[in-house]
Give the backbone structure.
Amino acid sequence: MDNGSLVWRSINAIRFLSVDGVQKAKSGHPGTPMALAPLTYLLWTKALRYNPKNPDWPGRDRFVLSCGHASMLLYSLLYLTGFDLSLEEIKAFRQWGSKTPGHPEAGHTPGVEVTTGPLGQGIGNAVGMAMASRMLAHRFNRPGHEIVSHRIVALCSDGDLMEGVASEAASLAGFHRLGNLVAFYDDNRITIEGSTDLAFREDVAARFRAYGWNVLTVADGNTDLEGISRAVEAAFSEAERPTLVIVRTTIAFGSPNKQGTADAHGSPLGEKEVALAKEALGWPKEPDFFVPDDVLAHFREAVPRGEAAEREWRLKVVEYGKGYPDLALEWERVMWGDLPEGWESDLPSFSPGSGPMATRKASGKVINAIARRIPELAGGSADLAPSTETLIEGGGAFLPDAPPGGRNVHFGVREHGMGAILTGMSRHGGIIPYGATFLVFSDYMRPSIRLAALTGLRVIYVFTHDSVGLGEDGPTHQPVEQLPSLRAIPNLHVFRPADANETAAAWRMAMERTAGPSAIALTRQNVPVLPPENVGREGNVYRGAYILKEGGKGSPAVILLASGSEVHVALEAAGLLESEGMSTRVVSFLCRERFEEQPAEYRRFVLPPSVRARVSVEAASTFGWERYVGDGGACVGIDRFGASAPAGRIFRELGITAENVAARAKGLPGNT
Ligand SMILES: Cc1ncc(C[n+]2csc(CCOP(=O)(O)OP(=O)(O)O)c2C)c(N)n1
């Protein structure tokens, strides 16, 4: 190790930019960037294909910092290699309005591929990206014209590999033999509480081999640049399996008193120790944020290198376009995330005459109608496709040994892994992913859903068996609090269609929504089909909540607000109330978040402030309905766990009946 050489000074520049950034912020994680500087130096100067001047070109490799707490490492690399991230931003680490938030946020900082920080998610996202890339390669590559040939490279830590979500995703990656995925594991044996000996002694290499991964090790990730280079090269030339490179490092390498200790994980080293570390590694103590000119110039070679790589790829695409003009247009379209002209023209309309239909069933028909027009719609379920009705008929299975081109993904019983994978697929681009399970198990996916919402990604979650109406499986399977808890996630749109026609509308909105994810909650049980002309009237269904039935002229005496299967309970209750002379409005609440986006005028039209007699009805926790029913109203819902019995009996016992709703309406102040 020659601290005077350009290479080691470059590595030390990564280290001390990170250390100084954390020190100035008085908060952050200095130890891991110090340890990973040699590996990332080699990756970012030699191995990765990226263009700092055009961070989003589709042919680039994707670099995922799964251990997002080491964000300063990534910011240092982005600044040094010439992304649109200034030294001022590095100095503003973790400050209000900066481009350098505590953990990396995709879409916020140029060059950040995914939002990471919750451990385990990033590696799950990387698996999703590798799957999306594989699907696109199947669809678009032609012999001699491999326009999809990039790699997904993830960097993960002990914490990442302890998390269950990583195991689920890694298992699936091994199963699929995703040779386009390389993960580096920073084996520094330190977490927050101390040594990994406290809780993590398993043989990670054996575990990943058992998943089907190619596993390589680097015994000395601190100083052995040749060893690291060899491993990177070997990993990048493996095409048949995902590769895990276990790199043994020392956290805070170079810090005389803190290296190898948990102290260096999550707090600044301290002024004194920073000075000692700089001295130990032969780095000038002053000024802070020092980058020698030749070091910066060396890193900035990434710009012409990246531009050349992009140019080469673009020429490939031009050649491709000559041979396959239609495919080339399709490629452009899917990578932009645009839907094809007229994509919605086959969306089915359902007639009441054909009898009642479970909304999950309707959803299955809608998925298939969409899939015929949109080849990039791909997804599946966590081993529940026959129940969630999410199979694309004739879509083929996405399997390692099946003919390429399959769009039905079998996630296995891995809801959390599925959640992280869907996020990665969406962020990769070119695929519109959906994933399905029972609504109650959305809890198993919640951390991933939250990140998709935070990042603003188009992911569609299909959650069936959406209430106690699923019946005999009992309270373990009957969602109660899931609807309000999903609605509490900012930027997630939660749809709960009342019938088949609303289901088609929900899917349409979810497909067209690019600013964030959508969850569609669907019934297991049959529900009546509403007249399509009522659902579609004036397009108000697309406003999230709309007047489905108006009892009489003038202001209604009472408004019933309902979602999903309970819309029919409300309609029946309205009949009862009207037979007693109370004019009743029924508002179907398909998607609260859409409704909230409407102008106040529309919202007041649907829910006039003067009508205070309101009753909500939803077979779920009533949490949140107060906002709409107000002081003068009442909520009919289920503020307890369900029970095992036939659905009809449960609804009766728990008061989700037209009679109860009517009685509650009549009992409101002013109506008695
Ligand atoms: C899901 C989740 N749980 C807890 C944390 C808080 N946390 C941040 S880093 C960390 C563990 C640090 O150990 P390691 O992953 O080995 O990182 P290193 O010490 O090597 O930086 C924990 C528990 C988190 N970020 N995400």
